[in-house]
Amino acid sequence: MPYIEENPLGDWTPYLPLGEWQRIDNVDLMACVTFSALNVLETLYYFKTGVRRNFSDRFTAKMSNTTPQGNYLYLVADSIRKDGLVDETDWPAPDDTTWDSYYLDIPQVVKDVAKDFLKDWMIQYEFIDVTRESLLKHIKQSPIQVVIPGHAIMNFFTNDDIYKYFDSYEPFIKERTDGFITALKYVMTKNMTINEQELALLYKTVFGRDPDVDAFGYAGQNLAFVLGEFQKSPEWKAKAQVLQVLDSEFNVKV
After folding, report:
1. What is the C-alpha to C-alpha distance for residues 215 and 43, in angstroms, rounded to an integer?
2. Which terminus in the chain has less CB density within 10 A, N or C?
3. Strand, helix or coil at 122?
4. What domains, with CATH codes, occur in the chain?
5. Could you tell me the sign of the dihedral formed by the alpha carbons of 78, 81, 83, 85, in that order?
6. Residue 139's CB: how many other CB atoms inside 10 A?
7. H-type helices in 18-107, by residue range?
8. 31-66 as b/e: b if 16+ CB within 10 A
């Protein structure tokens, strides 16, 4: 993913969410991967919008197939990217929490609400190096989901001496001097939709022609999606090959 320095200080303390326990009524939900991932996204959402939002841990834990043994970072990240998110009020923890009641099947209407989130926001993720140098760089773009033995947490501040992290067990804010086993970075981007006039201008700019009738089906779509479709098209690939020949054979930059 492109690296963008969103928070030059690399300190996400002012944007931290309220703490939530992954153990409810003495039932450990084994959902630390979900809790830490949503802590990251809640922090980013507040940073980008100035609005606090509490996403449903129960929803994502179930949609990503959390088991009594826990979960994998990439499975939770893929679920968020594809299934979306709902607020805690849309799918809260049950009053009398057991493992079975927490992981009940989710009604379709709630799943549909989660998809609506993806109309406004694009979620991407990538694994990064766990060296201190890497974390000092990437934490200026986003808080980092990290793993210590047996547990996933959120690293929200790193300097030359300590790592500060946000946990799903009290006390929620902790620090350590030792490093981490794995690190994953989320990026949350506001979607930009494109109308017919903008689509026509984009076609003229990229391909040097007006769009055909079928192309107007892209109107109302996310701009990132449209550009991705452009890059997969034979027309784009042919143009890219021409540009490569001009560059390599004739040293012409276009």
Report:
1. 37
2. C
3. strand
4. 13-190 (3.90.70.10), 196-250 (no CATH)
5. positive
6. 24
7. 32-49, 57-63, 73-83, 99-102
8. bbbbbbbbbbbbbbbbbeeeeeeebbbbbbbbbbeb
Q: What is the pTM of this model?
A: 0.80
Give the other-Cβ count within 10 Å of 250's Cβ. Answer: 8
In tens digits, the chain (254 residues) has pLDDT values of 889 999 999 999 999 999 999 999 899 999 999 999 999 999 999 999 999 999 999 999 999 999 999 999 999 999 999 999 999 999 999 999 999 999 999 999 999 999 999 988 999 999 999 999 999 999 999 999 999 999 999 999 999 999 999 999 999 999 999 999 999 999 999 888 888 898 899 999 988 899 988 888 888 777 877 888 888 888 888 877 766 655 565 554 54
Written in H, E and C, the secondary structure of 152-170 is EEEEEEECCCCEEEECCCC
Reference 186, options 163, 156, 231, 225; nearest CA is 156
Tokens of 248: 């390599």
Going by the DSSP 8-state scheme, the letter that residue 106 receives in this structure is: P
208 alpha carbon, distance to own chain's centre: 34
Q: What is the DSSP letter of 193?
A: B
